[in-house]
TrEMBL record:
<dbReference type="GO" id="GO:0003697">
    <property type="term" value="F:single-stranded DNA binding"/>
</dbReference>
<protein>
    <submittedName>
        <fullName>LOW QUALITY PROTEIN: RPA-related protein RADX</fullName>
    </submittedName>
</protein>
<dbReference type="InterPro" id="IPR040893">
    <property type="entry name" value="RADX"/>
</dbReference>
<dbReference type="Pfam" id="PF17659">
    <property type="entry name" value="RADX"/>
</dbReference>
<dbReference type="InterPro" id="IPR012340">
    <property type="entry name" value="NA-bd_OB-fold"/>
</dbReference>
Length: 454
């Protein structure tokens, strides 16, 4: 009888075989002209990523009524990993949740598509896939010098299912072992038996070297420069987004600053504006305005409400400044703005409600921050450097998020729950259940409309 939480021999053999495969390496190095041969072993799905498709339709064809999205799937066979293009008929696998990171698949049919713009280069197209398992069996770890694919024992699968272990997080291997494969003399793989998640910021990892910009993974088709989140367009996603910018060390000269009130009165008679010192009072969600027939590299926009002692005004962060600064601009952050632009405000925009009802609002203009025309200079001022004589308004309400709670000293002192509306057939009116995350995290995460619950 197998001990609870131990690794079954079948699972070990399956992962051991997968960790020794070289099918991806062969099929991409030999550049097959015919459909690629089918691999004998399952492949691990490392990532499923979405992006906006390219360009308008061909001449004479109607333009699509809604944006067309593409999907790239990163597969690994233990020796290497490759980014592959998922053909449109297989998109339903992603949309139904049948294909996701951590699953095992077998490439039934695939081909190699050459890019005529780059001599001898192309990518693998997945034309038919068979999902053979949903066990989250392997994790790839890196220490800045090398990386290794390791087997994750079943008791640790809950970390992945709860989102507590994901790509980009830092971990400490508390206990691990090396498992030899008796079929291959002297070869085996590392088994992770106990892990401690110590942070979600890659930049702080000792010895970690961030990949250069030119080596970042980019979408395979359409000439896009970034990926989108899998299920919406508004959340930051990918290594393009900076986690947090450090505060700047600047000497602020109050005599050279301009107030928002003075700016509102004199902006039409100025070409260049004096620096602004403001505090963020409100932050909106990102807005993605990319379109298939537009070629903007990073089509994002974010609205903020900023204030000084004279009042409050809207501020707009545009395009490539969003990945660089959006995560660092929080409610309460103090900013020094230089080389910004001023534009007339959109008249029908919904205005945020100020925390202080006595605060004056300047609604006719807005501050525009962009990477050109002119290139804006932004500096975050540490809260410890804020001086009372600047008379910056305070934020009335500040709320902690669940992400922050996870990293507090008492991070395990709260529960995760879901509200589920259920009908049992005896009435047309649903009753409501509050379900807490229990010892069945996989069941908890896969509750969705139309399923049956016992």
């Amino acid at each position: 009888m197998q001990e609870p939480g131990s690794t079954s021999r079948a699972a070990v053999e399956e992962v051991g075989a997968g960790l020794q495969g070289t099918w991806l390496q062969r099929v991409t190095q030999e550049l097959p002209l015919d459909p690629a041969p089918q691999p004998a072993l399952p492949l691990a799905v490392v990532a499923v990523e979405r992006y906006l498709g390219g360009g308008p339709g061909a001449a004479g064809l109607p333009r699509p009524a809604c944006p067309q999205y593409c999907y790239d799937v990163t597969l690994a066979d233990g020796t290497c990993q490759r980014q592959c293009y998922l053909v449109p008929p297989l998109h339903r696998l992603v949309q139904r949740g049948a294909l996701r990171a951590g699953y095992q698949v077998r490439a039934v049919r695939c081909s190699y598509l050459y890019d005529e713009r780059l001599l001898g280069r192309g990518f693998l197209c997945l034309e038919q896939l068979e999902v053979v398992g949903d066990r989250l069996a392997a994790a790839t770890l890196a220490d800045g010098t090398c990386q290794r694919q390791c087997y994750l024992v079943p008791p640790l699968h809950r970390l992945v299912q709860r989102g507590a272990l994901r790509a980009g997080y830092q971990v400490r291997a508390v206990r691990c072992s090396y498992l030899y494969d008796e079929r291959l003399l002297g070869r085996g793989f590392l088994c992770l038996e106990q892990l401690e998640v110590v942070g979600d910021r890659l930049a702080a990892a000792p010895g970690w070297r961030a990949p250069p910009a030119e080596s970042r993974r980019l979408p395979l088709k359409g000439g896009r420069k970034h990926f989108l989140p899998l299920w919406n367009n508004e959340d930051p996603y990918g290594d393009l987004w900076v986690v947090e910018k450090p505060p700047g060390q600047v000497d602020v000269e109050a005599s050279k600053l301009i107030s928002l009130g003075h700016l509102e009165m004199s902006w039409r008679s100025r070409i260049h504006f004096h620096p602004l010192l403001v505090r963020i009072m409100h932050k909106s969600r990102l807005r993605y305005y990319g379109k298939p027939d537009k070629r903007l590299d990073v089509p994002y926009q974010a609205y903020f409400e900023v204030a000084d002692s004279s009042g409050m005004m809207s501020m707009v962060l545009w395009n490539s400044l969003c990945p660089e600064w959006y995560n660092s601009m929080k409610v309460g952050t103090v900013l020094l703005l230089e080389q910004y632009a001023i534009k007339a405000s959109y008249p029908f925009k919904t205005q945020a409600t100020p925390g202080d009802s006595q605060m004056k609002r300047f609604a006719t203009i807005e501050i525009s921050l962009n990477f050109r025309d002119p290139p804006t200079k932004i500096t975050v001022i540490s809260e410890s450097m804020v001086k009372p004589e600047w008379r910056l308004p305070e934020v009335k309400y500040r709320f902690i998020t669940s992400v922050c709670l996870f990293w507090t000293e008492h991070g395990e002192d709260f529960w995760t729950s879901r509200w589920v509306h259920v009908i049992d057939g005896t009435s047309n009116q649903p009753f409501i259940l509050e379900l807490f995350a229990t010892s069945q995290p996989d069941v908890f995460e896969h509750i969705h409309p139309s399923i049956y619950l016992l």
